[in-house]
Amino acid sequence: MSDRPAAPHAASADPALGLLLRPPAPRAPWRLVPARVFAMCAVELQKLRHDRTELYTRAVQPALWLLIFGQTFTRIRAIPTGGIPYVDYLAPGIIAQSAMFIAIFYGIQIIWERDAGVLNKLLVTPTPRAALITGKAFAAGVKALVQAVVVLVIAAALGVALTWNPLKLLAVAAAVVLGSAFFSCLSMTIAGIVLSRDRLMGFGQAITMPLFFGSNALYPLAVMPGWLQAVSRANPLSYQVDALRGLLLGTPAHLGADFAVLLVAAALGIAAASSLLGRLAR
């Protein structure tokens, strides 16, 4: 006489067996995309952790702007700054400039990833292209934040009257990240058009100085000729500088409009770079 076979164990009794028999429920899109953005941002920042040389070398230029250009023009008093020392007026502009210079050549990295075969591997994953671009853009923003801290330390050592209000400093960080996100996406968009590092280097060098000098980073709008005022009003860097001056120095600013422009510019930049990512990978 054979024994009666034992009843099979319920799937719930063994969680591992349950996962084998039943695939895990997919994440909701509102949870998936932020997780992928954070993962891409973390990967980009790991590169910075292994090689900090870029941060040290890029700190030289803003230091020279503040120590030489800012100190000299403070003594000359040739530029009207509303009663504040010129080096104080210059410091927020140099924060924005150094952040832009970090971000504007970010497309070179994505071209290198294409040449190394990394980009194609990323594109075959389920990660949305917008999440890949957003992760890289906000990694550029975090790099720019490190640079902004360096400029703030130098400015404080020079006696610049900066605010240390924690809420305002958080808003400063947001302005730096949004501006860097736009300029890094602009660089990746150009990379998707020109498709080579040499051409991108040429385009980057061609637009960085016009963007910088065509903004209010060095001088107020009132002293510009009319055509340059129109260029400056269309330049996202001007809105970033205006926000940084208002937050750090307490000068009159249009913070609502400034952050709205930076948000829209970053969103359009992410959309443009994402649409050209497939062309870059081909």
Instruction: Tell me roughly what share of residues is in helical segments.
Output: over 70%
Query: What does the radius of gyration come to?
Result: 24 Å
How much strand content do the residues show? Answer: under 5%
Task: Report the uncertain regions.
Answer: none
Q: In this structure, how is the largest beta sheet organized?
A: none
Structural class: mainly alpha
* Number of DSSP helical runs: 13
Provide a short characterization of the protein structure.
This protein has helices spanning 15-21, 29-50, 53-58, 60-76, 86-103, 106-115, 118-123, 129-157, 166-194, 197-213, 226-233, 236-249, 255-281.
What does this protein structure show overall?
- There is one protein chain.
- The protein has 282 residues and is an all-alpha fold.
- Helices cover 74% and strands 0% of the residues.
- It has 13 helices and no strands.
- The chain has helices spanning 15-21, 29-50, 53-58, 60-76, 86-103, 106-115, 118-123, 129-157, 166-194, 197-213, 226-233, 236-249, 255-281.
- Helix 5 packs across helix 9 (166-194).
- The longest helix is centred in the middle third of the chain and has 29 residues, at 129-157.
- It is globular, with a radius of gyration of 24 Å.
- The mean pLDDT is 83.
Summary keywords:
282 residues; 74% helix; 13 helices; mainly alpha
Topology diagram in text:
Layout: H1 15-21, H2 29-50, H3 53-58, H4 60-76, H5 86-103, H6 106-115, H7 118-123, H8 129-157, H9 166-194, H10 197-213, H11 226-233, H12 236-249, H13 255-281
Helix pairs in contact: 2-8, 4-5, 5-8, 5-9, 5-12, 6-9, 8-9, 8-13, 9-10, 9-12, 9-13, 12-13
